[in-house]
């Protein structure tokens, strides 16, 4: 039976505060300065000095501005690091707007297909409600960008630069989601009315044509052929004519994307280690690359990242960036804020509990570009963010190893660094399908 709060209870709480000689001091501090500033432990800044035993030179950071494309920026950054080394182009960027266009176009089709697949369920069903909550958004995962590149290639930023709507995406997202929800009404009605497959296909084709027009006006039309003209860091002039987005990727990046796989650390009871997982209704390209995660222990997770850094290659990773993070200074450290001491309350939970109870999930993707190893063990990590140069150390952050333990959920590594047993599991095991709302389906 439910119990209300009584006057006796509140009186006891008030008396307890009155008896605490520090209560009024803390009240003044917290109420005027805020919880974070009052609980900050600036000793953390000394520990997080940005010096690393392995430190890749990856040039200037990019800036996603007012958009949620961190996953895309981070992935393209790992590719441009490779390209810059090969072609002596330190400040070069790949077009995030080009991949953004095709991602949103493909997400629209992916949404329509999921609407049709669930059209026999009521709008009150959890799956339908999940679909309609966010028909599409800026976020994504590594495998989703691979699906886009494998189908459409990539281009230099100079060929398809940013627009108002790519850098400040809220207007485009709200308009596109308005259309997608309206189209869902139409598609569900067609199914309910037992329309023919041909009629449904025709309706969907018209919808996709309208989405293409909306995206073209907002982001510009993607190119299909272009010339790549540039000067390298030694001021030598180059021009490469008649490229396509796919031939550009093949020539200038030349990665087999199938070699790069998602490794996660999700220590929840429903996801035993050394097995693979996918997430229902998560993706963008229909019949494209599947999102597939290999779940491993944190020890294996970090060792794989270190091996790739030692080989001179940066590492895409996903985390919950808002936890114990000081944005302006660029510090991610579990010791930076001590709320337990400030309030005399135990806020501690395990990583598994945070995932199971909705306290944490992957919210942001960045790039590991260095690590400080002491006696062979990592103590802190160098992170390339995509928030411009005005935060952190010219856009670079420092992450404590303890922070990685608690709030990092995903890295992408080349399969060559996997031990044979994990490589075999990743390549051969059919993944367990998780519910659409599983935290491992969160979009960075």
TrEMBL record:
CDD domains: Peptidase_C1B (cd00585). It comes from the Bacteria. It is found in: Cytoplasm. InterPro entries: Papain-like_cys_pep_sf (IPR038765), Pept_cys_AS (IPR000169), Pept_his_AS (IPR025660), Peptidase_C1B (IPR004134). Its main location: cytoplasm. Keywords: Aminopeptidase, Hydrolase, Protease, Thiol protease. Belongs to the peptidase C1 family. This is Aminopeptidase.
